Amino acid sequence: MSLKEQDSCGCEGHAPPSVLEDDYIPSIVSQLAEGFTSKKWSSHIEPVPIPSKEEVVDLVLQAQRIMFPGYFSSTMLNPSSLEYHLGYNLTIFLRNLSRQLSSAIRHDCFRHNQPCSNCNARSHELAGRFIRGLPAIREALESDIQATLDGDPAARNADEVIFSYPGFFAVFVYRLAHALFTLGIPVLPRILSEYAYHRTAIDIHPGADIGESFFIDHGAGVVVGQTCVIGDRVRLYQGVTLGALSLPKGAGKKLRDIKRHPTIEDDVIIYANATILGGDTVVGARSIVGGNVWLTKSIGPDTKVLLKQPELVYIGKNE
Fold first, then answer.
1. Which of 95, 143, 276, 319 has the least C-beta neighbours within 10 A?
2. Rounded distance between C-alpha atoms, residue 220 and residue 259, angstroms
């Protein structure tokens, strides 16, 4: 029996893959190449580097070793070795951050046909500004740790929070990404926020403005939009959405810099699966928004918004 009559699986009438015609491949290659080179489709075929997602993610791990010494290091630390540890890791972090900033700035300039702005020197200067802001970020993170301990009886100590709480990890990455965002760094802040989302299912846009002592309990499904403003000592539970109202088709670019997401004032608690939408929506200080509430208008301070208790139907053998 010939190859065309029976293949290697014993199926008659089909030739094995090794003898199939592949003359169509050059044609497909030409079609794909034309789509990319004509800029009809998004691609990165450019003479400038693009930031490395893997190296940007590694910056998070480096930052953990700096911001939480002893927790994520392979060697034991003591007071006498602390400054060496911090200096060594900060130096590596500064070098790596500068390289990724340079790639991000050069790529952005090339994409927008902007003149050269001495990217290497600029990236090093911006990296230095970011480094100088680390003590303030660490102070805010300490308030976030305390808010977690105050808000969750299951949290036994700071070690548990730092090691294992997804909400705290998402806030940690957010505070790094937000600092880069406020410096006007392209691309990198969103890579960081996407990494945190991948790890935790918590989506915080780096452009959001979030105060101190921020606590996300459980966390999966939480969404915080770009133009959200959140005050101090705010607590969110899983599934909370602080989002924008539906936009008309084509309105995205026009509203890009317009406030589209709500403002949450100090000491607010928002329970699971609540949805709060709109740039004009304000939740006043010390208010409580109950679970599953859908809110598109402002409420004043010291207000509770709750759903009525639904009617439950029990069905059993004796009912």
1. 319
2. 25
What letter does residue 252 receive in the DSSP assignment?
A: T
Ranges of CATH 2.160.10.10 domains, the chain: 208-319
CATH 1.10.3130.10 domain range(s) in the chain: 49-202
What are the helix (H) ranges across the chain? 25-37, 53-67, 79-111, 119-132, 134-151, 158-164, 166-182, 188-200
Give residue-wise pLDDT tens across range 220-259: 999 999 999 999 999 999 999 999 997 766 655 666 778 9
Selection from 284, 274, 276, 283 nearest residue 306 by Cα: 274
Of the candidates 28, 44, 25, 26, the residue with the CA atom closest to the CA atom of residue 36: 44
Render pLDDT for 20-35 as a digit per residue (tens, 0 to 9): 557 778 888 888 888 8
For domain 208-319, give the fold: UDP N-Acetylglucosamine Acyltransferase; domain 1 (2.160.10)
Residues 18, 156 contacting (CB under 8 angstroms): no
For the domain made up of 49-202, the CATH class stated in words is mainly alpha
Tokens of 129: 């500004």
Cβ burial of 318 (10 Å; 0-12, 13-18, 19+) is exposed
Predicted model pTM: 0.84
